[in-house]
Amino acid sequence: MEDVLLGRILTGMTLAFHIIYATVGVGIPIVIMVFEFLGIKKNDYHYLTMARRIAKGYTVTVAVGVVTGTIIGLQLSLIWPDFMKLAGQIIALPLFMETFAFFFEAIFLGIYLYTWDRFKNRWHHWLLTIPVVIGSSISAVFITTVNSFMNTPAGFDLVDGVFKNVDPIMAMFNASTGVRVFHVVVTAYMTAAFFMVTVAAVNLLRAKHKEDREYHRKGLKVNMIIGVAVAALTLLAGDLSAKFLHEEQPEKLAAFEWHFETEKNADLILFGVLDEENQEVKGELRIPSALSILSGTSPSTEVTGLNDIPRDEWPPLVVHYFFDIMVVFGMFGLGVSVLYFALKLFKKEEWAHSRFMLYLYALSGPLCFAAIEAGWFTAELGRQPWIIRGYMRVSEAITQADGLGITMIMFGILYLILGYTTIQVMVNMFKNTSARDSQIEYYGKESLMEQGGRF
Amino acid sequence: MNYEIIGITVLWTFLYGYVIIASVDFGAGFYNFYAKATGKSNIITPIITRYLNPVWEVTNVFFVFFFVGIVGFYPETAYYYGTTLLIPASIALILLAIRGSYYAFNQYSKDSNIVWAFLYGSTGLLIPAALSITLVISEGGFIEEKFGGIDLNITELLFSQYAWSVVFLAIISVLYISSAFLTFYANRARAFQAVEVIRKWFLTWTIPMLAISQFVFLGLRTNNEAHFLNAQNYWYLFGLSLMFMGIAVYLIYKGRNYGMAFIMVMLQFFCAFFGYGMSKLPYILYPYVKIDSVVNEAMAFWLTVVFILGLLLLVPSLIMLMRMFLFDKDYVQGKEN
Description:
Chain B: It holds the Pfam family Cyt_bd_oxida_II. Chain B: The chain crosses the membrane at residues 6-34, 55-74, 80-102, 114-137, 162-182, 202-222, 234-253, 260-279, 299-321. The structure holds 2 protein chains of 2 kinds. Chain A is mainly alpha-helical. In chain A, 71% of the residues lie in helices and 5% in strands. In chain A, a hairpin with a 3-residue loop joins strand 7 (386-388) and strand 8. By secondary structure, chain B is mostly helical. Chain B has one domain (3-332). In chain B, strands 1-2 form a two-stranded antiparallel ribbon. A two-stranded antiparallel ribbon of chain B has the order 3-4. The termini of chain B are far apart. Chains A and B meet through helix 2, helix 3 and helix 15 of A and helix 3, helix 4, helix 5, strand 2 and helix 13 of B.
């Protein structure tokens, strides 16, 4: 196989594996923060126990997230040395800042996890969640600015193959930084919330620990609240992204939508199969003028088609499928959470917790993860053939070293083993311990009787 | 001061920090496995666990910090090291990943077992070996230019006496540094049985430590004579290093003042590490990358600004972390959960 392809597969594999943990890493701290807050505020041991149990599982995912993050950090130089030599002149700053944010988070996470019973005033322990949330979210912000730079480079002049007149701040806050950072952060929060929704729903469905029903119902409700709020923001982020692409990266939007001819009243295409030769789409769901409206709020907006882009700068057209998956699966979470609150609003409490609905809730977490993966594949494949759009092609950046194939196999095996063990460890961690057992372990038997007023 | 000196000083200091803190961590993992395998686990493991739990993540960041920093200040290193280290660095990364993950699996899961402890412990010795290869390559002689680029001469590396002596130095240093620290920590925890065991480990490693350092010096002479000659200009640093080692060994042998002994070990490595680093200049990778290949002015300026701001944030946080877990008597003695 060609080295470029091997390098792309290896990088893609590492990132695809890492973002599962990274998303959890960015999103879960906010969930923990909310639960501990509610626990202290309402004097409710259920919430406190939940925060603590989530934190316990979180630690395991953080470990794998840290190591896979280290891998991708170094792989950038190992697989794409020419890219790093060139771009290092300008992306060093956000990378460096990301490390600081990560450092900050690591310190406070260590303190947070081992001081549950150390403070007389519980609020002091809660305060530790603030640096953890800030650290994890800010590191996502910085790393996303790097990726944004690769999409919409700014802040330099290219003279004889070297970046001159570098302005690192402009490079960081390039055209796409705002929308992408917003999109990445809210979808991470959303995925974390729906992941916890799934946990609650599965526990209510299986009902192995009957004494935990109230605990899981509370968890379901709070995560639904977080979920519906951030899912609405995600919708906004998606809309902003479409408008942004229309302005700055039309070839990407056109590839997402299999939009070939530049025209007004452009249709939005959902699903379908493409006949690439004849530029014909079969079996699609066509929404008239919707693409124009999405791109610029009015049907008369002219949307650039692929035929106006040089052929050798076309992104691969397969991105449309990933785009569909992202949109549909992403909307699913919003849908179930709205349904949940609608049923509650109309006093159909029993329907809201019916088996059918619980199955739907249980699906939302995995589908969110699938949407995250599909979203990144959409974004990254949509940037092909460029590694720095307009300046350096992926094929110019690949390493000249031998041994990419064997490296790819080694990492593939590693990810399989780590993924499998994580699931195994997580399941065993909670399978035989009910939340009630955990509560007794953390707060003593007397906590079961207490109605609050203790703090 | 100009940016190239700032850059290399910052990076070298962080690398030194990583060498110390990671050695404690790597060695602890190995001793933990060794104790488990020889049935001393109930004496040793609680000490190691109590120290490592809150800090393992921080250790890893030191490493990330270093490699992000070096690519930031000297982007050319990304090209040379990146291209040549594909295989060795990938192996090191896989080991790091196994170690980090299995530490957590072993620590936080109910079904921890001896296989996981083995994975976590053995990788602790293999990682320093793999990482130290980078230093070997930096001395030059292992990179060959081929059509259209460069590549690492792996056979040459495998049969190099110098490479092997550096690898063994790395492994022995890990066991040496970490047993010095754990002696101190166990003593603070008033786990006197553990102190006795770990103290013996430390004393066992002193002779090999001395011997291997000599081999490395001799190897350097054949491998990069200019560097070897330059190192002699810093003879006083290496002399100091030896003196600090003497004091450390004496204190631990006499069984007193373990805190001071560990500080001496740190100074021992500080002098040797900076002596080695300073004599290496101006090369980062002989003969391809010099420190004047520093990143453009604007970026170097912002990196320095961010670095200072970052330290203002990190140093107080690190002090807080240490006060809560390293120097808190109750925590160290396991009086609270």
